[in-house]
Amino acid sequence: MSQEQPRRPSGQPQQQAAGVEQGAVGYGDVFPAVSGGLAEKPVAPQDAATMQSAESLVLGQTLRGGPAAAMQSAATANERMGVVGHDQATDATAVQGVTVSETRVPGGRLVTEFVAGQAVGQYLARDDAGATAGGAGVGARGEARGGGAAAGLVDNTKVTIGEALEATALAAGDEPVERSDAAAIQAAEARATGLDANVPGGLAAQAQSAAAANAWAARDQDKTTLGDVLANATAKLVGDRPVESADALRVAGAENRNKGDGTARPGGVAASLAAAARLNRDEAVWEE
User: Fold this and answer.
1) I want to staple 182 with a disulfide (CB 3.0 to 4.6 A). Which of 13, 47, 174, 211 is the partner?
2) Residue 247: is its pLDDT beyond 90?
């Protein structure tokens, strides 16, 4: 499920911030994973309002400490400095829009938020207690613990490696597969199956072939995406098991070593497994 909420400011024509003025708080300051032109744009009040609306429509409320809250704080600071007007929006939200997407996992939802197509937040929202806390960075946790029937279903509420890979297909499904993604998928498949070698025709083999082909593809539309490879990942794995911290660390190491800048992809394989591992670890502590 996804909800896209492009929004134009009311009361006056839309204005567009061209870049970060001296002292202004830009998207790159609030969300370190953001890059390109978006990182240089100051966060405007109507940008924050758009994200708040999208969060409320999908989640039923605005997350405390989530992307919308972080944007609101930045926009308020920029308005006080006179960098942006109260009814101003950047083209990042007024034209390109924001998106809040979610995928079901046992016991909750993995939620990813985007501004102009770039992931600015990813967290896990529990079904039993609702999402009451979030994080502006990818991989931040957004669930609150509570009682209920789910407390007695430890095995059935663990997020598996396959489910975390499927979450990646939703969060970053339109991104072309790169060498770092293939390395992360290979590590994840190995942890799920316990096999040292690639499974013929398996996820790792598909990802490696896709990354090699993408390196030579002239056009983006000809490239294989993460969604192409990881859709229905659970069914494609010959074995699966709940994500543990060691799995997330192994996958993150593989992805980072094969990325030119040494950073994980926002909403990518490493980020999804890290979020799943946190949920599984916290669930285990709750059960004790």
Assistant:
1) 211
2) yes
